[in-house]
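Supplementary Methods S3. Complex input for the magnesium ion-bound model.
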Amino acid sequence: MRTPLRSGLAVATTPLLVLAALVGLKQLDPVVAGWAALPVLTVALLLGAAWGRDVARLREAVKQAASGRVVLHGPMLPALGMLHQEIDQLSRLMSERTTLLQRLLKSDEAIVERLPDPLLVLGSDRVIRRANQAARTAFGSELNSVLRHPDLRAALDLALSKGTTQIVELTLRVPLERDVAATVLNLDPPLADGGSILIVLSDRSRERAVERMRTDFIANASHELRTPLASLIGFIGTLQGPAADDPPAQKRFLAIMHDQAERMNRLIDDLLALSRIEVSEHQTPLDAVSLGDLLFSLEEAFAPRVAARHQTLLADIAADLPDVPGDEDQLAQLFQNLLDNAVKYGKEGGTIRLWAGLPPKDATRYPAEPGVVVSVADDGAGIARVHIPRLTERFYRVDKGRSRSVGGTGLGLAIVKHVVARHRGSMWIDSSEGNGACFTVWLPTR
Ligand SMILES: Nc1ncnc2c1ncn2[C@@H]1O[C@H](COP(=O)(O)OP(=O)(O)O)[C@@H](O)[C@H]1O
Ligand SMILES: [Mg+2]
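Predicted complex, serialized as structure tokens:
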């Protein structure tokens, strides 16, 4: 009640002073002045009360404005009522802007959160302020140990001191070994949450592995070609010098040279075949290939080599084998390489089984889609378990000397793997030492 009283007195002061002045100047009778003062005081007090009440309401309205909801209780003095309306409008505007700001903030957060690359925001104290989902998944609780990597720390120092963006290549050991390209950005001015450094950690492991594979491949291929070439150069020297007048030695050396030249020829053929398949690998071939015809003709073609090793080739090829969408030459090469290995690494005088048909009903390993299965099995020395996963790598051989002595290039199964992949098929190698080997290929028929 003190505010209305004070407001009332403030309103009444001027007319009361005027009345007092008039009495003082003897222009007004003190009794009349007394009577006149009474309504003035009453009206002033009422006005003061209304004023005080409305100012309190306005104060309440300003408080409510922050939350975006202004409630009006009853009528107000006209001028203050208008002010109240203005506050109400202002509060609505503020609330709309706040909603918009929150929405923008949320979409920013969603973008950062869903970025496929791990992203970290650090404060100038290098404490992590934010880590997106990719960062949490990739590094989990190891995030801080990633930040302790000396090269990353050096990049952070530079980014902070020079204010420039730094890019460093790192090999991280925890939680998994991987190659990462780290981009460190100085955020100037800092973000509202105090973030002043942004780090993006992009995984480069795949690219590095591909690069390593390519350089390994070139080194291996050069080495494989150099060996027969060095031997050819050596024999040419011998033929020109010490063996110049020794026809029996010449005959022997020329036979070896012929073998070496053949070996280089096979190697180049296989390298070319591999690169041709690789180039077309993501383009599925669509010619209708009759696998039955193809396998029968391979059986015939292999007969002399099978006989030379006193082996028996038992072919069990289903008569109703459906056609396979494929590349006939590549499919021929696939099964030729498998039969070639069975003859080379199978037992002398042993049995090779070539089987082709629809996937057996009870077999669970094959895909559910319609397809055909071809398997080539021998009863040779087999392959120790440790080697099986690596057999389809280029130039991988269990016994290099043995493979070379039987004319192997180490590329046969790599070609098989790529042809199967190009035909969207699958392959399995079942073997153990001393128990022969069975290579199975499944190819889709649609
Ligand atoms: N049927 C098999 N029995 C035993 N070992 C095999 C058989 N097929 C392949 N291998 C092993 O896999 C290696 C790779 O085969 P491949 O890529 O065809 O190369 P290559 O036959 O030219 O040596 C061979 O060197 C051999 O050690
Ligand atoms: Mg081979």
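The radius of gyration is 45 Å. The chain has a mean pLDDT of 91.
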